[in-house]
């Protein structure tokens, strides 16, 4: 799976599991900012979805990889 | 002192929970500090970090009449209700059954039946066991109560709000006796849900102590609440008085309480104020005390802020350490504990403290006695019970040996409709609804659904960071609610937020979300619950979100009993306004349609084979959905704001004729009663009524019952024009009931020109004709609920 495919899959997970509208979800938009506004419950959900989809555990990982889709993609690609 | 006519007393108690199958057994174990928390024996715990629960062990639950028609939650409730009625020495006779109400609280209702449905081939028989609506109906059915029957679905505050509402109904003369309380059964949905939030304690809950999570319990508490005069007349044993109550919203977060305790303190202060008792009269508080850090820290803060310096003799405990968190039953079970504590002069303990814990508690407790481990004998005069729920709903109620100083407004202000918000299957907004109605637009299929999108959110200022978290049920409510606030030109700020409330009415609530959550658990195990979805599985999520996005901090109730809930919410709101609890209340009706709901209603034979109009003799109806919000406002608030009313809500009536839940047949007389009560409440004669907005939806059973009742009330050849919103929107259940009240208000207002397309009786048939609405002064609105509940509201031209 290349980074492009990982990124698309992560977007799908976010749209499906966290109610984010597809048209605003770019690689760069901050996930925890005002626009999308993820919170701690959402991160639990995101960690569970990424674990299920990619087999990559992000439990206990610091904040940085969760910044945006690009950083999540990078983390998943490096830990696949 | 409270006037005798406004005194409400407790005359019977019933309870079942993990430490006892009746009040005596439970109370005796509570005083001994017995814990009912053990490894669960009923749900799958594979891969789950917490495995404890406080479950009921009673092999007699199936012995009640009609038990095969009930979920476990109703069986628990029916059992506790029997004990309470027996304890009160009261059996409901036919002559006064209409004066006996049933008000029950629940959080998750029949979720065990939802699990069974999906695990056992989706049998039709499980469907009517699923909704919370069933509970009060089944209690009424078993014991023959025909007064106001409904359920309060405010999650963990439901049991307390149900007792508070029961007292309001007694004080306003709507009933003499109320069987009030709450019930919830332990099941995989709440278990997996709290697990997903990491809110379950691994080693059992430890309120005001380790504060590392809750342990779920189950059970039911039921109290016979009675007017003092009724109790006295039948020479009943009186346990104590129920004084005032306080109900508030946090406007903060869907699951977490405000850290500053503001909402909790608003509820507690209001309860003290309405009771007319000072802080130092409260000798014991049965705290909410769930054992989560967020709740317990906020509650420590609230109690210290209110009682420190004013009360040196306060004992507090959380009985949840023994019986677990029984969710919608919690407030009711804790009310029974509170009444027992008061009348036996014994404070039950919070168990689970080591010597080290007791040392640590001293610092957090200050002067308050948090009663670790051991019960204490203490002379008590007045006690309080607090419940704080998901959705940021707070409730507090006061029980006393004394009459207190409960003030009841004898000459309530008039109530006006000053704002409307509509989301429907024919589109959103009032203008759109009027256009579609006037054009005679009809649903194009037998199952139609509302849609809300970016434009709707933008129009009422809702951001994606907020609305993406909501399920469809809550989204519909948020948009109709916010649009109604805009339409009322109402600005919510720090000055008025506490004086504005919300009463949501719904038939099925977020049933589709619960079903989806349950299906995911069946597929992925109980460790796979979605933390994102779980908060939306509680019925009061919609009201909670509306409070958050609007900033409303006043009353907050979610009432559920079939389609009529959307009109019963108007009646409920009128009661809140008349008693001066708030100056403005949003009354709503909301129900959703989607594939799951169409499947469930379809299996019950409610979805018609083809589209068709009201009174056309179909089997079933066009299933629809939507959300309608009416802003109701007291006369003084309206004048102060310079608001322009659509119309006045002149009065309401509610009645019940107990039939099996899921049925209507044989219950029509209650509709006649509801109409007569509404006229009486409005000080109106039946001949003053100019038109009806009814509940005709095309289903021959429902339509025939409706017309038979009108014939009985208004005469065999009644000439009143009957309108229905359902030819335009389908059967949107609670949304349609509230839309019917909206339709009446629109016809009576000069703001819109609504077509006079009505049905009139011609021989035995209802025939469409065009009538002149300009001369209408009083319009009757009616609605029905399966199980035999009816609500009627009279709307008057201003």
Task: Provide key terms for this protein.
heterodimer, A: 80 residues, mainly alpha, Non-ribosomal Peptide Synthetase Peptidyl Carrier Protein, Chain A, 3 helices, 52% helix, globular, B: 798 residues, alpha/beta, Peroxisomal Thiolase, Chain A, domain 1, 2 domains, 21-stranded mixed beta sheet, two-stranded antiparallel ribbon, 27 strands, 20% strand
Structure commentary:
The complex is a heterodimer of chains A (80) and B (798). Chain A is mostly helical. Chain A has a single domain (3-79), classed as Non-ribosomal Peptide Synthetase Peptidyl Carrier Protein, Chain A (Orthogonal Bundle). Helix content of chain A is 52%, strand content 0%. Chain A has helices spanning 3-18, 40-54, 69-79. In chain A, helix 1 packs across helix 2 and helix 1 packs across helix 3. Chain A is globular and about 30 Å long. The model of chain A has no long low-confidence stretch (mean pLDDT 92). Chain B is α/β, with parallel strands linked by helices and 798 residues long. Chain B folds into two domains: 4-400, Peroxisomal Thiolase, Chain A, domain 1 (3-Layer(aba) Sandwich); 415-507 and 561-796, Thiolase/Chalcone synthase (Peroxisomal Thiolase, Chain A, domain 1). In chain B, the strands form four sheets. Chain B has a 21-stranded mixed β-sheet that branches. Chain B has a two-stranded antiparallel ribbon with strand order 2-3. Chain B has a two-stranded antiparallel sheet with strand order 11-12. In chain B, helix 2 (72-88) packs across helix 4, helix 5 (158-171) crosses helix 11 and helix 16 crosses helix 18 (541-550). The longest helix of chain B is centred in the first third of the chain and has 17 residues, at 72-88. The two termini of chain B are 38 Å apart. Chain A binds chain B through residues 17-21, 24, 34-37, 41-42, 44-45, 48, and chain B through 196-198, 255, 454, 463-470, 528, 530-532, 535.
């Amino acid at each position: 799976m290349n980074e492009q495919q990982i990124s698309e899959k992560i977007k799908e997970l976010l749209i499906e599991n966290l109610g984010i509208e597809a048209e605003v979800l770019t690689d760069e938009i901050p996930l925890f900012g005002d626009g999308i506004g993820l919170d701690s419950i959402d991160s639990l959900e995101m960690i569970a979805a990424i674990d299920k989809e990619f087999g990559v555990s992000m439990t206990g990982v610091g904040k940085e990889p969760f910044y945006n889709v690009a950083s999540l993609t990078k983390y998943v690609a490096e830990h696949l | 002192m409270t006037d005798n006519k406004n005194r409400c007393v407790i005359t019977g108690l019933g309870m079942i929970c993990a430490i006892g199958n009746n009040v005596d057994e439970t109370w005796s174990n509570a005083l001994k500090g017995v814990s009912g928390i053990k490894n669960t024996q009923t749900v799958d715990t594979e891969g789950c970090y917490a495995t404890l629960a406080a479950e009921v062990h009673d092999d007699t639950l199936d012995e009640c009449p009609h038990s095969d028609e009930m979920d476990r939650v109703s069986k628990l409730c029916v059992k506790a209700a029997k004990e309470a009625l027996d304890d009160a020495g009261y059996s409901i006779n036919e002559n006064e059954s209409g004066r006996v109400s049933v008000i029950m609280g629940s959080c998750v209702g029949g979720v065990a039946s939802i699990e069974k449905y999906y695990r056992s081939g989706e049998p039709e028989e499980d469907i009517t066991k699923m909704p919370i609506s069933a509970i009060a109906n089944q209690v009424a059915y078993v014991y023959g109560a025909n007064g106001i029957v409904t359920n309060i679905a405010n999650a963990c505050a439901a049991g307390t709000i149900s007792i508070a509402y029961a007292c309001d109904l007694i004080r306003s003369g709507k009933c003499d006796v109320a069987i009030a309380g709450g019930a919830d059964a332990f099941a995989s949905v709440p278990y997996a849900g709290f697990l997903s939030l990491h809110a379950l304690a691994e080693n059992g809950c430890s309120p005001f102590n380790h504060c590392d999570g809750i342990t779920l319990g189950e059970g039911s508490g039921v109290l016979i609440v009675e007017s003092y005069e009724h109790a006295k007349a039948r020479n009943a044993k009186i346990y104590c008085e129920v004084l005032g109550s306080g109900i508030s919203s946090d406007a903060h977060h869907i699951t977490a309480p405000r850290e500053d305790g503001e909402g909790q303190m608003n509820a507690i202060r209001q309860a003290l104020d309405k009771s007319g008792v000072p802080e130092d009269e409260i000798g014991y508080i049965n705290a909410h005390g769930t054992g989560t850090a967020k709740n317990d820290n906020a509650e420590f803060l609230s109690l210290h802020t209110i009682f420190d310096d004013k009360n040196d003799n306060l004992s507090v405990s959380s009985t949840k350490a023994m019986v677990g968190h029984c969710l919608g039953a919690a407030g009711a079970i804790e009310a029974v504990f509170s009444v027992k504590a008061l009348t036996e002069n014994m404070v039950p303990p919070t168990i689970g403290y080591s010597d080290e814990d007791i040392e640590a508690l001293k610092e957090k407790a200050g002067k308050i006695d948090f009663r670790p481990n051991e019960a204490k004998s203490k002379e008590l005069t007045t006690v309080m019970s607090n419940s704080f729920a998901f959705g940021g709903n707070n409730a507090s109620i006061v029980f006393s040996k004394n009459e207190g100083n409960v003030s009841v407004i004898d000459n309530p202000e008039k109530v006006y409709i000053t704002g409307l918000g509509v989301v429907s299957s024919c589109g959103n907004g009032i203008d759109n609804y009027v256009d579609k109605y006037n054009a005679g637009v009809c649903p194009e299929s037998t199952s139609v659904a509302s849609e809300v999108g970016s434009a709707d959110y933008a129009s009422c200022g809702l951001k994606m960071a907020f609305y993406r978290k909501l399920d469809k049920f809550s989204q519909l409510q948020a948009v109709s609610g916010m649009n109604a606030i805009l339409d009322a030109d109402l600005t919510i700020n720090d000055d008025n937020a506490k004086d504005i409330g919300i009463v949501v009415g719904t038939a099925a609530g977020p049933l589709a979300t619960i079903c989806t959550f349950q299906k995911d658990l069946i597929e992925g195990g109980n460790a796979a619950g979605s933390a994102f979805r779980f908060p939306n599985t509680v019925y009061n999520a919609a009201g909670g979100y509306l409070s958050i996005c609007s900033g409303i901090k006043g009353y907050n109730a979610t009432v559920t009993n079939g389609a009529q809930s959307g009109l019963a919410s108007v009646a409920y709101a009128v009661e809140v306004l008349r008693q001066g609890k708030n100056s403005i209340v949003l009354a709503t009706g909301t129900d959703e349609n989607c594939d799951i709901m169409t499947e469930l209603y379809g299996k019950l034979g409610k979805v018609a084979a083809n589209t068709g109009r009201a009174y056309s003799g179909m089997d079933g109806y066009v299933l629809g959905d939507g959300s309608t919000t009416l802003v109701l406002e007291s006369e003084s608030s309206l004048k102060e704001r310079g608001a322009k009313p659509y119309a006045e809500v002149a009065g309401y009536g509610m009645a019940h004729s107990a039939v099996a839940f899921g049925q209507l047949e044989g219950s029509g007389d209650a509709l006649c009663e509801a109409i007569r009560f509404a006229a009486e409440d409005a000080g109106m004669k039946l001949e003053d009524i100019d038109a009806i907005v009814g509940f005709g939806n095309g289903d021959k059973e429902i339509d025939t019952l409706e017309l038979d009742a009108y014939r009985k009330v208004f005469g065999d050849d009644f000439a009143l024009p009957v309108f229905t919103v359902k030819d335009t929107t389908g059967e949107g259940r609670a949304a349609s009931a509230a839309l019917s009240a909206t339709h009446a208000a629109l016809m009576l207002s000069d703001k819109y020109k609504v077509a006079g397309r009505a049905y009139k009786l011609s021989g035995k048939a209802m025939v469409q004709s065009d009538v002149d609405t300009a001369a209408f002064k009083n319009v009757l609105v009616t609605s029905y609920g399966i199980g035999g509940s009816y609500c009627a509201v009279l709307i008057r031209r201003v």
